[in-house]
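Quick start: what a row looks like.
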Amino acid sequence: MIWTYVLLVVTVLLSGAVVFLFKHDNTRVLKLLLAFSGAFLIGITFLNLIPEVYEDHIEYIGLFILLGFLLQLLLELLTRGAEHGHEHDCENCHKEDHISPVLLMVGLCTHAFLEGMPIVPSFDPETRNILVTGIIIHNIPISLALVTLFLHYGMTKGRAVGLLLIFALMTPLGSLVSQFIQAATLQDISHYFNYAMALVIGIFLHVSTSILFETEENHQYNFRKFLTVILGLAVAFAITYFGHAH
């Protein structure tokens, strides 16, 4: 599990560092990354995660998926869509319209913490690895947007990286909390991890559909987005079915 945690943290930090290395406008690239990540998330959700949690016929599992969806909707009142890579037009908006960095971090850290809770050694390894891959791909555009947003707010590079590191640590922390609960509980709590996964599924469904259903006036971009979405779905299909084949 330690290498999983390292990978989760390092990919966030490296993605955020790209903002410092490339000064030009990266909006178009970010949108295509978002389209790929959204397609990949919805792909693994329908092809792997949903079948996995329904396999054991656990009561109320659909309710927890719905709760995850609604919880993500609530979190976006704090983050205004940073989970699906929104940078927000900070240069043209009024100061009072800016997102509070504190609320932004609370929302994003809660989001990342919940995503980490099903990542435990006792969970199905293939499903766990697919979930981790989805989180990593999902975190790349978030990290780019987050650092860009912090710099728009006039934060120093050091403070921006520090906040990004806090965000990066939240998913491993969620995993560690689940493992602590598992170790401290004498009874079988395998259903708990399925409920935690169901919450994450609801979160993924909200984030991915928000990305994929966003409209653009640029028809050329829409065609590129369509191709990127097909690629994301194809990768999700390959990882799910070829992974099971092995």
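That is the whole record. The chain is about 75% helix and 0% strand. Residues 2-12+40-245 form one domain.
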